Amino acid sequence: MQVRKTFRFEAAHVLPHHPGKCSKLHGHSYRLEVAVEGPLHTHGPAQGMVRDFDEIGRIVRSRIIDEFDHASLNDFMENPTSENILNWIWARLADVLPGMAELVLWETATACAVLRASDM
User: Fold this and answer.
1) CB 53 within 8 A of CB 3
2) What count of other Cβ atoms lies within 10 Å of the Cβ of residue 18?
3) Using H for helix, E for strand and C for coil, what is the string for 83-115?
4) Catalytic residue positions?
5) CATH tag for 2-119 (out of 3.40.50.300, 3.10.20.440, 3.40.50.720, 3.30.479.10)
6) How many beta carbons lie within 10 A of that of residue 55, not counting itself?
7) What is the pLDDT of residue 117?
8) pTM of the complete model
């Protein structure tokens, strides 16, 4: 089974290799979806859950959202394309979110990048 939690953050970036307007400083209202797969817990406080939504929220906020919100993504990586941002996020979450199955990063309402565990 899979559970999915959505987060939002505001961030700026410059794409230094882009031939168009994205080579200039600009920002986005990003939406990040984090999907975790696994069996349902059969006992304990997470009984009947794959992973507690509050736990996913705490982890993602502390490792990603608190870092990225109202920041320049170029401070974290040289070429912050949606694809590179997802790779960076995956590396920060993989060790603390076992069963992470998919990340989806929406840069605009109509454009997103997807990174799946099978891509790694």
Assistant:
1) yes
2) 12
3) HHHHHHHHHHHCCCCCCEEEEEEEEECCEEEEE
4) 22, 70, 107
5) 3.30.479.10
6) 16
7) 96
8) 0.94
- At 26 the pLDDT is 96
Q: Are 57 and 66 spatial neighbours (Cβ–Cβ below 8 Å)? A: no
Alpha-carbon torsion (78, 108, 38, 40), positive or negative: positive
Per-residue pLDDT at 49: 93
Query: Hey, CA dihedral for 49, 34, 29, 77, is it positive or negative?
Result: positive
Domain boundaries in the chain? 2-119
Give the mean model confidence (pLDDT) for residues 40-46: 91
CB atoms within 10 A of CB 81: 18
Rg (CA), the chain: 15
Q: Which stretch of 28-37, 40-49, 64-73, 78-87 has the lowest confidence by average pLDDT? A: 40-49
SS3 39: coil
User: Quick check: 79 and 86 in contact, CB under 8 A?
Assistant: no
